[in-house]
Amino acid sequence: MNAWLLLLPAAVLLVAFTHYPILATIRRSLFITKRNGAEMFVGLDSYQAMAADPIFWKALINNFWFALGTIPTSIAFALVMAIWVNRNMRGRGFVRLAYFTPTVLPMIAVANIWLFFYTPDYGLLDQLRGVFGLGGWNWLGDPSTVMGCLIVMVIWKEAGFFMIFYLAALQQLSPDLDEAAAIEGASRWYTFRRITFPLLMPTTLFVAINAVINSFKLVDHLVIMTKGGPNNASTLLLYYIYEVAFAFQDSSYAATLTVVLLLLLSAVALVKFGYLDRRIHYQ
């Protein structure tokens, strides 16, 4: 009985702020609100409209490429940075701080910093291009470059955050493992591939789940930098939900899109846990 009482506060918060909103969102996707405020049951009509919505499919495809560009790259950079700053080196504290600083910056500040980099003609990138005699480029106004610009910005911001988890995990590994591998004549790459990285798999699973969630929740930067443009080339799924809910005032369709987003994240989480859990080696 005491155990249930101790769990009660957390359970109440979980139900109130997770389970109930999910159920309410699913219910909302099955209804529409009339002008007089009354609700009318429409069943799967909103889902049928979503299936025929070209902007939804555009946002979904954009999000796929955005996730593909940010998740593995940010994890790889985080691991490399963690290994680098885990060594005995001069200025190690300063390097750690430099890597972690982008993480603590507010999202709006990050968006404005990168707006300066990408601004045509007088932005930092175009100034560097001018050194080589190249003209200005509208980085955020060109459909062929806008997504790459967002991917680079997100990797810059997130890699330092993921680095902290890898650094903590590396510091928990026994140095005897490296010493034993060195005695056996194993190279550094072989030691990393066969010993270090397998022992980091619990951290990799945690980081990968967070990276997936982060890749589907980008809104602030888009509001400041592109507003989904040009021609929806940078529209991501959560930004489209935000736009539908608050700009178009269509809460039923926004709920429908949210349900699809939840299903996508749940499916990815199940696959990750099912695939990576078999490859995790706990100490």
From TrEMBL:
CDD domains registered for this protein in UniProt: TM_PBP2
**Family that this chain belongs to:** Belongs to the binding-protein-dependent transport system permease family.
What's an example GO cellular component term for this entry? plasma membrane
User: By which gene is this protein encoded?
Assistant: lacF_1
Q: How does it sit in the membrane?
A: Multi-pass membrane protein
Bilayer-crossing regions? 64-85, 97-117, 137-156, 195-213, 253-275
Q: Which InterPro entries match?
A: MetI-like, MetI-like_sf, UgpAE/MalFG_permease
Name the record gives this protein: Lactose transport system permease protein LacF
Q: Which Gene3D superfamilies match?
A: MetI-like
GO BP term (any one): transmembrane transport
Q: Provide this UniProt record's keywords sorted from A to Z.
A: Cell membrane, Membrane, Transmembrane, Transmembrane helix, Transport
Per UniProt, residues of the ABC transmembrane type-1 domain are 60-272
Where does this protein reside within or beyond the cell?
A: Cell membrane
What organism does the record attribute this protein to? Bradyrhizobium ivorense
Name the major location: membrane
